[in-house]
Structures are given as structure tokens and as C-alpha cells.
Write a structure and sequence with these properties.
Transferase(Phosphotransferase), domain 1; 2 domains; 6-stranded antiparallel beta sheet; about 20% strand; globular
Length: about 270
């Protein structure tokens, strides 16, 4: 007579796995309020933040650019870099650098800051659309150089100088460049911008390949200094005068890090 089968689950049999998925909370929408600001229109998006045109309700009514950490990007590293950007802007006071006006955090703790709303277009696009001559292009470029020099004097390296981060707006009919987005700014001279660690991990690509200095593209242990910004300014000047960058931007993006490393070796040879 056979023994009755044990109907209990076998310890060696495969177990059913239950995967719980939770919907990602929706991001900000036009009409939402963050503190004293009402979101009007999304005007930009970067690697770590979303930029909104917003209306400040009090103590004064004005329109500002409000940058908020993206959902899912609130790691200590990103928040640290974001706070460094916020403090870097607060340290600077120059007519060609967008001013920071206010700072805070959303209800769920994501940092934001309100800054001067710059209604402009990238410097290269402005020059091309308005058929700006060489002399006028050099004048705009000189203003940008003065702005970057001011940042360097405050101990700040931009590390991502490119046309889309230099907007040209009209001030009483006169074109004025404004440097924006110090999101990957770096303190120099031992200056502390935030109490949270800002760490660029090995093989983490920071910057825009077509405008990066060789040492920034190489990502070695050497510290990046103000010369990286000066290199990027040289690339910008080349583009303003010739209509293209020294190295093809699309090709660099397509080939990725390998091409950037090869470019570094050729320039050091």
C-alpha cells in the first residue's frame, strides 16, 4: 500500500515570484504651484532638471525661470551638484550672467531655484539669423569672456560652455549675451559650494563632447581648472567665425567616448 502523497509545497520546487510595480508619480504640470510660483510653461529640460517659465505671486508679481530636479534624479550626487549650481549663481553678480532670485524645495523635498527669465536664443543662432558681422560677433564674444572671467574670479568653473548655454537677448535694442546653466559648475580654490558631496565618478562623462577640453574628455585623475572653460571659449569663437566647430559634433556623439579619447591623444601628440 503506497503512502499518501504529501500535498505540501516541495522545498525544492520553483517558487512563484510576485513583482510589485508602482506607477511613477506624475511630474509638474502647467498650472501647478511650487511655493509662491505658478508654473506657466515648460521651456527647457536638461540632464538633471526641468526649467519652467513661472509667475511669482508675492511679494512681487514677476515672471521667472524655475528649475526643478527631475523625478527619479534625486540622488545625493545630483542634489549636491544642483545645490552647487544654485550657490554658484548666488555668488555671482554680472550683467552677462543670469541672476538667481530665490531658492527652496518642493513639497516632496526636491530642490528648486528661481532665476532671471532670459528671453533669448543661442548666440550662434542669433548671429546667423540676424546676419551679424564679424566685428559685432567679436563684441558679443568679448562680453561672454568677461562673464566667464567674473565666474572664475568667484572660484567657479562652468564646464559646459556652448551656444545653448549662452542666450542673446535685447536690452533697449542692444544685443546682450547671458550665460546660463551652471549645473556642472565646480568650485576652485578650496571654496565650498555645498555641504553635500559633489563627485564626478570615474568614466562619468560630464560636458558636451564638441566643446570639451582634452583633459576634461580624458577623465583622468587630474583636476579640471579654468583652462577647460578657456578651451571651450576657443571652440565657441571658432564656431562664431566659421559656422562650425573644429570637430564635428554629430560624429563625436555617434562615436562616443572612444572618439573623445582619440581626439585627446591626437592633441597631446
Amino acid at each position: 500500500m503506497s503512502e499518501p502523497k504529501d500535498k505540501r509545497p516541495d522545498a525544492d520546487s520553483p517558487k512563484e515570484t510576485i513583482v510589485l510595480s508602482f506607477p511613477e508619480p506624475p511630474g509638474e504640470q502647467a498650472g501647478d504651484r511650487i511655493g509662491q510660483y505658478k508654473l506657466l510653461q515648460e521651456i527647457g529640460e536638461g540632464g538633471m532638471g526641468t526649467v519652467w517659465m513661472a509667475e511669482q505671486q508675492e511679494p512681487v508679481r514677476r515672471r521667472v525661470a524655475l528649475k526643478v530636479i527631475k523625478l527619479g534624479m534625486d540622488t545625493k550626487q545630483v542634489i549636491g551638484r544642483f545645490e552647487a549650481e544654485r550657490q554658484a549663481l548666488a555668488l555671482m553678480d554680472h550683467p552677462n550672467i543670469a541672476k538667481v532670485l530665490d531658492a527652496g524645495s518642493t513639497k516632496n523635498g526636491r530642490p528648486f531655484f528661481a532665476m532671471e527669465l532670459v528671453k533669448g536664443v543661442p548666440i550662434t543662432r542669433y548671429c546667423d539669423e540676424h546676419r551679424v558681422g564679424t566685428k559685432e560677433r567679436l563684441k558679443l564674444f568679448t562680453d561672454v569672456c568677461h562673464a566667464i572671467q567674473h565666474a572664475h574670479q568667484k572660484g567657479i568653473i562652468h564646464r559646459d560652455i556652448k551656444p545653448s548655454n549662452i542666450l542673446v537677448t535685447l536690452n533697449d535694442g542692444v544685443p546682450m549675451p547671458k550665460v546660463i546653466d551652471f549645473g556642472i559648475a565646480k568650485a576652485t580654490g578650496g571654496q565650498t559650494l555645498t555641504d553635500k558631496t559633489v563627485f564626478t565618478a570615474f568614466e562619468q562623462f560630464i560636458g558636451t563632447p564638441a566643446y570639451m577640453s582634452p583633459e576634461q574628455a580624458e577623465m583622468n585623475a587630474l583636476d579640471i581648472d579654468t583652462r577647460s572653460d578657456i578651451y571651450a571659449l576657443g571652440v565657441l569663437l571658432y564656431e562664431l567665425l566659421t559656422g562650425k566647430t573644429p570637430f564635428d559634433a554629430k560624429a563625436l556623439v555617434a562615436k562616443g567616448l572612444d572618439e573623445s579619447h582619440e581626439r585627446t591623444k591626437r592633441q597631446k601628440a
